[in-house]
Structure prediction request, 291 residues.
Amino acid sequence: MDLNYFYTFKEVVRWGSYTRAGETLGYAQSSVTTQIKKLEQHYRVRLFERAGGRMRLTLSGEELYYYVDKILALAEEAEEKLSKESNLRGTLRIGTVESLAAYFITPYIKQVKEKHPELKILLEAGLCPNLTEGTLEGKFDISIILDRYREHHELTTIPIREERLVMVAAADHRLQTLDEMDLKELCEETVILTEEGCPYRVLLEQLLQKEGVQPKSVISFSSLEAIKQCVADNLGIAILPEIAVESEIRSGKVVKLPFHHEQAKLYTQIIYQRKKWLSPPLNQLIGLLKR
Prediction:
């Protein structure tokens, strides 16, 4: 049903006249009459009856007026909210990786939430391939991933910043005294890896394969906190995003080894469907992240 018919209906009630309602709305009387007839045909009731030179609501008309008043009030409230772009309702679904969820994006989500207290934000962590697939399928409105720069013909990709990967070990580890560490040193070490499919695990595995290096042993965890604790307990060496281990390096719980490789870097990136309509909260989040 066209909302304009409801506005016309309300003006006829206000003035008790098709002519006055038309003058107020800028319509010809015939147009007002047509709109009221369409409402009556739609609801299969008579809405007005003439009484003493005025158009008066029938019982059915009074019933419709009760709902029309509520519908137009909600429509005006929605227009006001959307035009101000503040305190919008709805749900924002965000996919991201554990390291970014824990150490990067939460302050920006907080800012969006402060502007839209009634907005529901669902944050789900996962592996980058799953996040990309979920974004393509519409499971996520937006995903913030940590990976090599990726492009997809159905996705918009916005690189935010370069993330350095660092190799960390226990505070008293023998390799920290080297000026420059070679990957071949890992032949004598236990390497602690994240779960399969994680971009920085994939990157390290590719570097090791390229150099023909086979670590003495491998431990695998899905939890960053578990990996960092194992490193601190001298159970092995790990390669992690610097943002995820900055606090432990500063406190001396772990040390950064002198490992430098031009490929040991990833990019924090925003991805979303190319055809997706970006709501005001989504636009605000993207703007904050890009800044």
About this structure: The longest helix spans residues 59-84. The first strand starts at residue 48 and ends at 51. The mean pLDDT is 91.
